[in-house]
Amino acid sequence: MPPKAKAMAPKKVHNSQSDGMVLLCKDNVLNNSGDTTPNIMKLRHPHSNQAALFLVNADHTRIQEIVTFNEENRSWFIDENVRSDGKLHLATTVNPLYLALPYLINATTLSPLDQTLIDREFPETRHLLKCLTPKLLSLVADRKGDEDMNVWKYNEDKTVTWLSNKVNQVMRLLEEKHIHANEDGVAMSSTFVKTKADTDVIRNKGKGYQNQSMN
User: Fold this and answer.
1) Would you list the DSSP string of 40-107?
2) pLDDT confidence of 182, banded at 50, 70, 90?
3) Count of Cβ atoms closer than 10 Å to residue 86 Cβ
4) Which of 1, 17, 22, 144 suits a disulfide with 151, CB 3.0-4.6 Å?
5) Measured between alpha carbons, how far is 150 from 134 in angstroms, rounded to an integer?
6) Whole-prediction pTM value?
7) Region 6-25 average pLDDT
8) 134-150: per-residue pLDDT in tens?
9) Where does the Ribonuclease H2 subunit B wHTH domain start and stop, copy by copy (predicted)?
């Protein structure tokens, strides 16, 4: 049976990528800033190097990746309307440094940041500028020249340290939540993880039962 969704008061979001979608996100992300509205745009994903949808708030200071969950034969009941597209889109916060890092790494010359972020295939990459504060950029790059020039040079040592800290934070959180990840990177509760020791115990018990039945 299609899921029922209660429609909230509509908020205008500029979306040139779709004629509409069911999107779950924090309400304050959709707040307008004067005449400016939040914007859904296509940017280059740093992992796949392919297009991905992102939601940028009205003042362009926060960015969220839009993750899509899709199953066949699904639709939405919204108030008195039926929406045949049953996809569910979820906006999750993303650190803009991840999106800017490939551009900093691949920069061949020292240029102002607005020029470093030029991507003819994804022209809306320029909207990352307000998200990238000097405090953030200093974690992966070194400032060159005067502040008003906004020129940054990629620093590999800083980046490795920053990424290592991120990995350690995730590891600590997974341990606290008793969540394990298999070889494919799929997370699962430790309740459902069978260790080699558990397997050996089961195997030995099985042998014991077999010996008893044969005696």
Assistant:
1) EEEEE-TTTSSEEEEEE-TTSS-EEEEEEE--SS--EEETTEEES---EEEEEE--HHHHHHHHHHH-
2) low
3) 16
4) 144
5) 9
6) 0.70
7) 56
8) 999 999 999 999 999 99
9) 98-184
